[in-house]
UniProtKB/TrEMBL annotation:
PROSITE patterns from the UniProt entry: NLPC_P60
Domain of life: Bacteria
Family, per entry: Belongs to the peptidase C40 family.
Gene3D superfamilies: endopeptidase domain like (from Nostoc punctiforme)
Keyword Transferase: no
Official protein name in the record: NlpC/P60 domain-containing protein
GO molecular function: cysteine-type peptidase activity
Signal peptide: 1-27
All copies of domain NlpC/P60, residue ranges: 53-179
Any single Pfam family the record assigns to this protein: NLPC_P60
Length: 179
């Protein structure tokens, strides 16, 4: 028997052993293997959640750093000059953490998964109607404690601000969780 065929039989034998093991003592090994596999899977899910939470915190921190630096310009996505509309701002901020968003508040409102207002978490996108009642035309990022960060214009404001969600309750439409 050559080394290659011997190794192949050992591998096949080991695979069959794992699949069909049913004897005394072996069942305990299977249970141990299953428990180990389950623990690894649970640990991976916990790590993915931690990573997701870390990304959301980084999204919020990055968006706050842009306060006073970004200018609002409708229909603009200029990363060099930091001129953005609301959705190109969210697109830019999420891209900083490797999360890809489309440009446009309506397009972003179709990404990720729906989130009920009562279940908002940091980093969720929140969508509003600011001109045509009932139609999405503005987006911001929920930052927790009933607040969201947005790129907007109005009055003396031109750029990134933090706002109370309660002041936008009549214009609030939906939320999405992305990334």
């Amino acid at each position: 028997m050559t080394n290659k065929s011997h190794i192949k039989k050992i591998i096949v034998g080991a695979t069959c052993f794992i699949i069909i093991a049913t004897g005394s003592g072996i069942a305990g090994q299977q249970t141990s293997y299953a428990a180990t596999t389950s623990a690894v899977t649970q640990n991976s899910v916990a790590t993915a959640s931690a990573t997701s939470a870390q990304k959301k915190d980084a999204v919020i921190a990055f968006s706050k750093k842009l306060m006073g630096k970004v200018k609002y310009k409708f229909g603009v996505n200029n990363t060099k000059k930091l001129w953005f509309d609301c959705s190109s701002f969210t697109k830019y901020v999420f891209a900083s953490q490797g999360i890809s968003l489309k440009w446009g508040s309506v397009a972003q409102s179709k990404q990720g998964v729906y989130v009920a207002k009562k279940n908002l978490q940091k980093g969720d996108l929140v969508f509003f109607s600011v001109s045509t009642p009932g139609k999405i035309n503005h987006v911001g990022i929920y930052i927790g404690n009933g607040q969201f960060i947005q790129n907007t214009i109005g009055g003396s404001v031109n750029g990134v601000i933090i706002s109370d969600l309660s002041k936008y309750s009549s214009r609030y439409i939906t939320a999405r969780r992305v990334g």
